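Appendix B, Record 12. Input sequence as logged:
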Amino acid sequence: MISPYLQLHKRIKSHLENLNLQKIDIRIIYRENKLQVEESNWLESQLGIRTSLCPSLHAKCYMNENEAIVTSMNLYSFSQQNNDEMGVYITKEDDTELYESVSAEVQRLLTTSEEIRVSMKKIEKETESGTQSGLDKIKQKINLSKSKLLTTKELSQITELSSRKVNQWLTDNKLMIKKDNEWSVTNKGKDLGGVERTGKYGTFVVWPEGISKSITE
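Logged structural output:
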């Protein structure tokens, strides 16, 4: 499985866990520093799944010993639900030459990527103090008593960034998390004025307008 971004749906996790129990060789290549906290925790618990880092990765490919899909879609819930994607389905039986060509490129990526063992403890040790310091600076810039609350779409319009990038910034700073396709604000997010709201499409989070300055820095 090759994808710069990982945000695995619970059905995919369940399927991978089942394959792992069957001692199937599972390899995942992703881009360095782009792993979600939830995925870090899950991968750490799956001792049989081998992971590799490729900082320059932009390709997306999912294959087994008989089939392959080369596609534009990241293995990421947002991409699956919101983006228009395309892909090419290849089978070893129908087009052996093309399948072998894709397999050779996948092997090259495995060879050139750095195989690692995901460790959540290491991530927390290295990032927690820096994250808290950054949040303190953000809080100093937000006047919670005067700042109106905006959705991520509205923050996207102000910052001129895509909604995906705004959501990524908020999750990278551990201000909100997504579970079962709904957004929830963390305690750190609440401390910065984030508020959960319920709408037609489920739970979402609104943020003080002043946070937009920190997002673009």
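The CA atoms of residues 71 and 87 lie 4 Å apart.
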